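queue> pop job 88
queue> type: inverse folding (structure -> sequence)
queue> payload:
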């Protein structure tokens, strides 16, 4: 997606060969006009897949996933990173290890919000090693729902995430694919 590529190249900050900061327009400050365009692009790409719900892991994926769900006219499921102290009954749960933060967390989804009739599109901000997306898939499959595809804003193509997901048979669509990062260097896949 050209608009997102331009923002990554002009406002993204490559700290090293693994970390790209996009906090000025995606994570800490979110550009709603950009997120609307991102959501419309995902909705257009996945429009013929029979999607009944969009899912994302809190928190950076919420804005683009919400805009995608709005464009598709379906509900948004927010997969929580910690179980609710009040609503800890009837939850699907799985453990995910965060590449960026280097820690593990319990991903949860209330069982009454999803069923085997759902065909879910997963939206996430980054794809690196594929751990977050794989965790989301595990959680959704616990409800016997199916996966319509996986939409990613920014893919680090030099890491194994896409291959892991495609080897499992998932359609992965990334709006920006990065070939290489280094300190102050961002190269896109051509």
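queue> result:
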């Amino acid at each position: 997606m050209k608009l997102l590529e331009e923002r990554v190249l002009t406002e993204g900050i490559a700290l090293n060969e693994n970390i790209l900061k996009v906090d000025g327009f995606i994570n800490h400050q979110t550009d709603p006009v950009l997120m609307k365009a991102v959501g419309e692009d995902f909705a257009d790409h996945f429009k013929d897949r029979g999607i009944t719900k969009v899912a994302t892991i809190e928190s950076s994926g919420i804005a683009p996933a919400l805009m995608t769900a709005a464009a598709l006219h379906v509900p948004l499921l927010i997969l929580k990173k910690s179980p609710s102290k009040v609503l800890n009954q009837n939850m699907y749960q799985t453990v995910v290890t965060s590449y960026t933060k280097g820690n593990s967390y319990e991903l949860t989804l209330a069982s009454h919000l999803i069923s085997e009739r759902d065909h879910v599109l997963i939206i996430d901000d980054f794809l690196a090693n594929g751990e977050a997306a794989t965790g989301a898939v595990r959680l959704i499959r616990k409800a016997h729902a199916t996966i319509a595809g996986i939409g990613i804003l920014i893919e680090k193509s030099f890491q194994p995430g896409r291959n892991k997901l495609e080897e499992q048979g998932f359609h992965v669509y990334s709006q920006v694919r990065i070939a290489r990062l280094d300190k102050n260097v961002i190269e896109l896949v051509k």
